[in-house]
Design goal:
The complex is a heterodimer.
Chain A: E1 2-15, E2 18-31, E3 35-39, H1 46-53, E4 61-66, E5 69-70, H2 76-86, E6 87-90, H3 102-113, H4 117-130, H5 146-159, E7 164-168, H6 176-192, E8 196-200, H7 204-207, E9 212-217, E10 220-226
Parallel strand pairs in A: 3-8, 3-9, 6-7, 7-8
Antiparallel strand pairs in A: 1-2, 1-4, 4-5, 9-10
Helix pairs in contact in A: 3-4, 3-5, 4-5, 5-6
Chain B: H1 2-12, H2 16-56, E1 59-62, H3 66-69, H4 79-87, E2 92-106, E3 111-119, H5 121-128, E4 134-137, E5 147-151, H6 152-158, E6 165-171, E7 177-188, H7 193-198, E8 199-203, H8 204-211, E9 219-224, H9 230-240, E10 245-248, H10 249-252, H11 254-292, H12 294-303, H13 307-343, E11 345-346, H14 353-357, E12 363-364, H15 370-396, H16 400-403
Parallel strand pairs in B: 3-8, 5-7
Antiparallel strand pairs in B: 1-9, 1-10, 2-3, 2-6, 2-9, 4-7, 5-8, 6-7, 11-12
The chains are: A alpha/beta, B alpha+beta.
Bound molecules: adenosine-5'-triphosphate and magnesium ion (MG).
Amino acid sequence: MAIITTHGLSKVYQAGKVPVHALRDVDLSIEEGEFTSIVGPSGSGKTTLLNQLGGLDRPSSGEVWVDGCNISALKDSQLIDYRLRHIGFIFQSYNLLPVFTAAENVAFILLLQGEKKDRIRQRVSELLTEVGLGDRMDARPRELSGGQQQRVAVARALASRPRFILADEPTANLDSQSAMKLLDIMEKMNREHRMTFIFSTHDQRVIERARRVIRMVDGAIESDQVQQPEPHQA
Amino acid sequence: MTTLMLLAWRNVWRNPARSAVLLLAIALGLWAGLLMVAVSQGMLVQRFERLIEQEFSHLQVHHPQFLTEREVQDHLPDVAALQHWLQQQPELREHTLRVLVDGMIQSPALTAGVEIRGVDPQRERRVSQLDTTLNQGKYLDAALRNPILMGARLAEKLRVRPGQRVVLTFQDTRQELVSASFTLSGTFTSLSRAEEESRVYVPAEVLSAYLADQAIWHQLAVLLQHPDQGSAVAARLQQAFPQVQALAWLELSPELRFLTEMGDLLTWILIGVILLALAFGLLNTLLMATFERTHELGMLLAIGMNKRRVFGLITLESLLITASGALLGVLLALLNINWLAREGLDLSRFGGAALAEFGYDTLIVPVLGSDELLAVALLVVLTALLAALYPAWKALQLNPAQAVRN
Ligand SMILES: Nc1ncnc2c1ncn2[C@@H]1O[C@H](COP(=O)(O)OP(=O)(O)OP(=O)(O)O)[C@@H](O)[C@H]1O
Ligand SMILES: [Mg+2]
């Protein structure tokens, strides 16, 4: 069964007098366990689409259904709570609170969810170990490399036990080695936790790691292909 | 949620220089403000107490016409009954009787108009502390025949020293002029220049004997346990003795009433100005801090931190920095005020001599009431909350989709 489906999803931005059609009538379905990449030239609507799927913004027309719930119909406050409990986010940057350590950043989302403190400690340490940062738990973001920061973001996204994780160009600021390492971790999470990942990217090497590639042009889906991912040679 | 508190606290110290400046500004503002409040309150309280002591007591009783006419023959009726009644009042602290008459004083050098007060030396010192204001000679010296006490300025003008003689001239109850010779016993200083130039004290029995055949009194001055009791006791006395006029200090002195009301107003204006400055300083800093963190606040909203918590975060940041600054400021102020209360603040060193001309002490003992301190603390907290409203509201207007975009 599909986790996410969109029906006639459109988004029009008003840039001055000219309307910008950032999404045009997108029909899309994402199944549980997918490892899907959204690609396309700059301005093609990747970020807009991910924001719609994550309930960060409202469509101009059309609907987004998650697990049989029309999230476009939720009230603002319900939508925030929905995001907290059901969706994981990894952004290109500004993922972490600079005044919190890696562990505190991961713990924070669990506290927001109302998790008990003693259970949080355990889980945070497991997750940070899983993303290879077991020894950097008490480091502040500025003491971590870009790649390490993104891995903390992955740990945090996973910590909240979401239905799926959205990542908008998670590797854009990373060198290719860190980018591949991040992909390794995401892939491992996808495999071991059956976590659904949807990520946008410009990077050909990242695209090759996906099992499904949705290509966007000018706000519409141009192609949607399932592919055999390139095995990563570490 | 303690984590929110931790986050807020660390956010406050993200820009240590900016926060330190704001914190110090709050602390110094509060310190200066509280100090000013305490000094002005101290000044007014002292002036109040002086006026009560030297002039009005808490309540005075006269013949109904005396205050307007000041005629010698308008002396108090039923003095014994009045005294007896007073002694039964639980509020009573001290009381004394005075003979009041206006006249002339004469020395070889000069003749001047004077207000002559005939007093009971023992009771007078307990009501007005007259004996503590001497700067020369002795208090109404019982060893002298007809001793007289006068203001230091008057003695200077008359060019007389203790032991030398002056002549007082006044009308008796039969409207005949009487002259009598007195020996200067001592001179007193007063905060009021007019008083120091025109008032003399003599023993009541001496004065009374010149005025009439029997002892007469014009004024009954009463000190109570607390100034606030003045009006109530005056009203009771008035009811028991309709043939006299009993007035509390509030009615006797417009200045005293003005002082108490003005003192409060002044305090709150001062505090208001400080709070206003605090509000704008806070607003400015919080707005800056919010705008600088657009991405971060957007991220928090995006991952699911609800608006109530985001609002709480910014409010907490405001409260934390304000509370830290205020705590420091209050501490400084209390230490400072305590120290000044022990040493006294000598305004004459700062050109405060002019104050003395108006009858104000130049050695001020600052006072700060705990009521005022508590009210200020609450108002500061309220200001911090109010100043946080707009920045917090601004943060809630963020569209997370926009805020997380690069
Ligand atoms: N707030 C906005 N107001 C007006 N136009 C917008 C707004 N946000 C996005 N757009 C426009 O919508 C279109 C799609 O933008 P979007 O950011 O989704 O593209 P993208 O594929 O993510 O591009 P990139 O690869 O550069 O990140 C672009 O033409 C963009 O200029
Ligand atoms: Mg984009």
